[in-house]
Specification:
283 residues, alpha/beta, 434 Repressor (Amino-terminal Domain), Endonuclease, Chain A, six-stranded mixed sheet, 49% helix
Amino acid sequence: MTARTAPTERQKRLGYELRRMRTSAGMSAEFAASLLAVDRGAISAMESGTRAISTERIRTLAANCQVDDERYIAGLTDMALPAGPRWWDRYRGQVPQGFLDIAELESRSIRMRVAYPLHMPGLLQTSDHALAVFRMVIPALPEHEVALRLALRIERQKVLDGENAPAFVAVVHEAALRMRFGSADVLRAQLNHLIQRSEQENVTLLVLPFEAGGFPGAGQTVLYAEGPTAQLDTVQIDNSHGPDFLHAEAQLAKYRGHFELMERLSLPPGPSRDFIRTIASEL
């Protein structure tokens, strides 16, 4: 099996799931190695995502760990299949790896729920708005890097279009709607773009107004990406140092609770659009 020096987040996640499956069953790494006809080091490499594993070995391991959830097993085997060329591979080595991991996570999601307290959702940003955001990065990015990040973001947005586009639910705080990146014209165009996008069948935009008060996770920009089964969901959190990916059961439960509360506190889709129109009219 092929060795990797820099596994992607998806490859690392597969390794995490393999280890969780093995340890939950009380199986030692040595027994797993004998079961799969590999050495002990290969098990460590598979569980860290630095070595590939065949779909047959995944099914053998699952059967011996008494895991019979076919949707979960199918999700794992899908993660193990050779990916082939993906559009984001064109950016490899030119932008931070975390950006590519986000693109892959979005492309594989069944449904996405996002919360933005201070920024516009990346998948719903206009080019001018995104450009203003990238030009405010500290330390300043060279123009060719700004152009690369902008191109990547615009291409990522295509995930919301087409027949098999995932459902996308965005909770956007009033603060984000009023935060100005670029000129008033840029913000006005951005707000109008949000309204247009929210009218897509698969896009739901919910505004969380100031009057709703505080809420858990108020300072975090969060993506909750649903996989083929709840066990394979992923939470991605934006940080100044780059994205963090969370998938422990307790973490997933925590953020599901956060989103359920935020969505209850938010205005419904129609009133949310009216709210955005009011802000745009004030500019």
